């Protein structure tokens, strides 16, 4: 039997030729149909996922656990269904663009426009849209709840993907720290705080786990990329079992890369939890304070580097395999800045942490100066680079990093709009990576790593380059893709990262939520609303894929998982925030006057003026 998801059922109704309201599919009967079938179909759909889930998947070493986890998560689903007095938000308060013609996915039905007056059609379309939207949201909530992982009967996270069609699970059956962030935010916005609190405390325990790879241990304070709940025999008792958390710090992950972003996201989520729940007891706990400090110490430790940006290996974040982002990738810098800002708010002032707080403040100023000044490109800056002198030795060099103008890629000369700009992907000696990386740009806006003007210019660029960055599915993870020899050399011929696929210019719907927060921060929510509308027309129908392929994001990714949790959660967070933009504040940070003063002090003492070695030693104590 083919069991249809609720939104699929409704989409089928929408695909029927458009007819007058008094015929078979009148609006009234449509609503009745929706309500009636909504509950039945959703339940059947859930059951079918449960039944297909395990027997169909090839055996892995954690099969028992999967059965167990799913048992408990399905029984949790029963609970949440009765709890789900959750009502979708009032559509009137959402920011959807009025122009139904432009963004209406129902339009492609081939109906005759002459049957109804255009006003009638628009009215009905609007009503249908909001009903469809409600159903899709309800399906997303159901799926999100089905992805919940339990540990000792408490919810502690969400599985990365719950794809019954996938033949190889790899590590998608684990709770990824970065993937849980949108899930956690969705739960916070829905005032479900326990799962987030549990997640924060359990991952904190993993932070001090003994971790080694070939006898080498990474720095203390590292947070895992992911973990899973395993059921193991109880020591000394063959008849009993216990559940344990099994973290992966990169020692098992493909490519063996340490996740630099996990700890940074953990700090950001911790602050969001406090702001949203009002519960200050969590952040005041000694173990939580110690956890924050351990992450900070690891990030602020002295190294060989000349830059205030964090120096990392390739693939230390959302892009977790070789893509030529090693060095000082923007995504890490934006999360680093955001985590420093959040930690600054949360660290308890005590004698022992005075040095750490001073180091943190100095780094914030230096980091924002560095990014705003050297990562920024717009037409004017590009023209400056085009005319750069090279091989400048001395403190007052203009072209500090010795960038050869020929590095400006031909695509960018055409691509850069007259109005707008963005932060480049990476800066190293004699090397600028001019690719546009979305997450780093969004989060630089959210955290105030960039100025207000720069933030607006980033949104202007997104608007101007909509056809390249959004097209048929928001949002390109980076633009443009590496092709030909560049792809061979930079990715190492990675068959998953072929041009316009996966990390190499693929379109990732999860990025919607970060886009939404950035747009709300700049008071331009209509940009995000436009993107949500495009995604909403496809996501549920396509079974919530992890990513899309091709230049315009037209195909579901070749190796894309279906029912990818952060696709589902990202959509929900966007919808919830657009309906209630004030709530986005739990994720934003603003530059305060202390930082602004320290920053202007740095600008007057620096940048292109003569600067001797003594001056460069100066610290700014905020
Ligand atoms: C992929 C993504 C990574 C994500 C993981 C689990 O590896 O690149 O960012 O955390 O899948 O969804």
UniProtKB/TrEMBL annotation:
It catalyses: Hydrolysis of terminal non-reducing beta-D-fructofuranoside residues in beta-D-fructofuranosides. Keywords: Carbohydrate metabolism, Glycosidase, Hydrolase. It comes from the Eukaryota. GO terms for cellular component: chloroplast. Pfam families: Glyco_hydro_100. Its EC number is 3.2.1.26. Belongs to the glycosyl hydrolase 100 family. This is Alkaline/neutral invertase. It comes from Helianthus annuus. The lineage of its organism: Eukaryota, Viridiplantae, Streptophyta, Embryophyta, Tracheophyta. The gene is INV-E.
